[in-house]
Amino acid sequence: MLVRVPVRRLAMAWVLCLLAGCSTAPGAAPPTTGRGTVTYRAYAQSYTVPWVGSPDFSNLRRTLKVRASVNGGTVSSYTVDTGSVGMVVPASEVPNIPAGSPSGHLTYSSSGLKLTGVWATLPISFPEAVNATGANAGAQATVPVLAVTEASCTGSGVNSGRCRAHIPHMLGVGFGRGTRTESAPAYNPFLNLTEMVAGTMRRGYMIGRGGLSLGLTESNFTGAWTMQALTNAGTPAAGTHNDWMMLAGGFTLGSDVKLPGKVLIDTGLLNMIVEDSSIPSGGQVADGTAMTMALGSVSYRFSTGDGGAQTPTRVNYARAAHGTFVNTGLRALGHFDLLFDADGGYLGLRAE
Questions:
Q1: 122 close to 105: Cβ distance less than 8 angstroms
Q2: How far apart are CA 301 and CA 291, in angstroms?
Q3: H-helix or E-strand spanning residue 16
Q4: Is the dihedral of CA 322, 204, 65, 315 positive or negative?
Q5: Mean pLDDT over residues 179-197, rounded?
Q6: Could you tell me which residues come within 8 angstroms of residue 348 by beta carbon, excluding any fewer than 6 positions away?
Q7: Which pLDDT tens digit goes with each residue over 290-302?
Q8: What angle do CA 73, 79, 81 make, to 5 degrees?
Q9: In this structure, is the dihedral angle defined by the CA atoms of residues 5, 281, 2 and 231, taken in order, positive or negative?
Q10: Number of Cα atoms under 13 Å in the Cβ half of residue 213
Q11: Phi/psi of residue 57, each to 5°?
Q12: Residue 30, preceding bond cis, omega within 30 degrees?
């Protein structure tokens, strides 16, 4: 789910180059980026968490989910959402919420769903996780969690017509989602596992057909990844680790006019959202419209409504509040696995 944040424009020439596909094509791992060769040789610890329901990546019709619990409470299925940061859980499923936990709220800008509760710093468990040896190990992280007592629909956002005033189960694990304290990496459960805090596990994750991988190692970093260096977002609002800016890229909409800007691969949505001052600020892109997406140096094409693996359920226009922007939605991963390296500042895509 998209939580809207300010974006910075990169140099126009560089972005136009990305849109033209002028970077080096994927090669055998370990790939080389502008920061040198990417390697995770120093790390051996990782976890794999299975997806709930064995999703079909060639035709994703539901968000990706894993099972988790907070503070030893109810084990529930949670949507893995790269479009937000922070874990959201009904307060009724969380035992022993600490007295004096600060009040807080979170609003998903795509749906207008507003959630209100308290931020409680508690242990999160992934009971189905297995470690690098294949043994069940129950990965754990301790981060602030929004224990929600109230949900309401604000009526804003391109998906507001689908908003329901109920409390979801969400694992917000994105990057570049803003400067608020609650958007900092310190609130991301996938970047704060016990071993990551201890420094023995590389902070990062992979989203792919074989499940969710937590921690990056030489063993799980296999295949032909296209690794792209991200821009440092600077001093964090909370915690000790900096954040990273969204990927540079853009889109082409029904013509040869390339619209360079920022790209969010948002696993919390099935539709796509496009923004630019030269296109409508509301409504839906007509079926049959040819589109090209530039995910940094990787691109893919579709025609709206063609039913392809990467074609979103629909493409919505939105007001260009922060320049040129595209939220691809989950179905961008119809032909890619995704990697995020929070320590090195890389986003990786591997064609499948």
A1: no
A2: 6
A3: helix 12-20
A4: positive
A5: 97
A6: 206, 225, 226, 227, 228, 338, 339, 340, 341
A7: 999 999 999 999 9
A8: 125
A9: negative
A10: 27
A11: -70, -20
A12: yes
Q: What is the mean pLDDT of residues 108-133?
A: 97
Do the beta carbons of residue 197 and residue 124 sit within 8 Å?
A: no
Cβ distance 328 to 349 under 8 Å?
no
What tokens does 165 get? Answer: 């005033």
C-beta of residue 236 within 8 angstroms of C-beta of residue 242: yes
Strands 258-264 and 325-327 turn out to be parallel
The DSSP symbol for 94 reads -
pTM for this structure? Answer: 0.91
DSSP letter for 193, please: B
Q: What span, in angstroms and rounded, lies between the C-alpha atoms of 109 and 322?
A: 13
Q: What is the pLDDT of residue 255?
A: 84
Which region, left, alpha or beta, applies to residue 252 given φ > 0 means left and ψ of -120 to 50 means alpha?
beta
Q: Which helix (H) or strand (E) holds 18?
A: helix 12-20
Residues 6+ apart with CB under 8 A from 92: none
Query: Length of the chain, please?
Result: 352
Q: What is the pLDDT of residues 10-28, one digit of tens each?
A: 333 333 333 433 333 333 3
